[in-house]
Write a structure and sequence with these properties.
It contains eleven helices and ten strands. It is of the alpha/beta class. The mean pLDDT is 95.
């Protein structure tokens, strides 16, 4: 059977490819489970400092959930649908959002439904000029269930988010950039190089510092400002005595660039 997830590791960056091009990289239960397992392995690999997530083929990043599989769960009843579909998808996007290493979506084509929710959850996103984004769940008679009703309005604003959620209409890459869903739009052939260049700009800094910033920003978004400031303080405290902070302060005093992390 074709691997549902492809991994390529080079220059301290792992490229994860969703590999169901014949199904527009639809998120089957097995694909989600293998993605989660891959993240578990990458998280403890000191040789990996950043992750790029993309889709196989020329048409899609991911068209969203595997509707045939999801339909079968719905037929089994509410408990099965919540257990097999909703909780699995929410666990995936929460894992991506809270990952301590930067995760960059390289959106190579359509990102609909769950594919759009992955884009919302990861830390950064670069889109091909061919990419498009949509929240078509309303056409199925349901809300998004992998976090889209919560993350999208927080990310792009309530009215912009609700427009996408309530119409189900697709938007092109340039519009996604304008509303803040992605960080950049590039020519299709430059997508992975652009994502790699962004990753390299991040991993030139210390991994513990990068992880602390991701954690503080991600957790703080869902807290009051006071609670978020406490998280910020905790993340700073965790770096006191670390090589990252010691070298950064020494480099500033000595008027030299900080060391490049190994």
């Amino acid at each position: 059977m074709t691997d549902l997830i492809l991994l390529d590791i080079s220059d301290r960056i792992t490229v994860i490819t969703l590999n169901r091009p014949q199904r527009l990289n639809a998120l089957s239960y097995a694909l989600i489970d293998r993605l989660m397992a891959a993240l578990d392995r990458i998280e403890t690999d000191a040789g990996v400092r950043a992750v790029i997530l993309t889709g196989a083929g020329q048409r899609a990043f991911s068209a969203g959930a595997d509707i045939d599989e999801f339909t079968a769960s719905v037929r089994q009843g509410r408990a099965a649908a919540l257990r097999d579909f909703v909780r699995r998808g929410q666990a995936m996007t929460a894992r991506l959002e809270a990952f301590r290493k930067p995760v960059i979506a390289a959106v190579n084509g359509l990102a609909f439904g769950g594919g759009c929710e992955i884009t919302e959850a990861v830390h950064l996103a670069v889109a091909s000029e061919r990419a498009s984004f949509a929240k078509p769940e309303i056409r199925l008679g349901m809300p998004p269930t992998f976090g889209g009703t919560q993350r999208l309005p927080r990310l792009v604003g309530r009215k912009r988010g609700l427009e996408l959620l309530l119409t189900g209409d697709s938007v092109p890459a340039q519009r996604a950039l304008e509303i803040g869903l992605v960080n950049a739009v590039v020519p299709h052939d430059e997508l992975l190089p652009a994502a790699r260049a962004l990753a390299q700009r991040i991993i030139r800094h210390g991994p513990d510092t990068v992880g602390s910033i991701i954690t503080a920003a991600t957790r703080g978004l869902n807290m009051t400002i006071g609670e978020g400031l406490q998280v910020e303080s905790e993340q700073f405290a965790s770096l006191v005595g670390s090589r990252d902070l010691a070298d950064g302060l020494a480099a500033w005093r000595e008027r030299r660039p900080p060391r490049v992390p190994s």
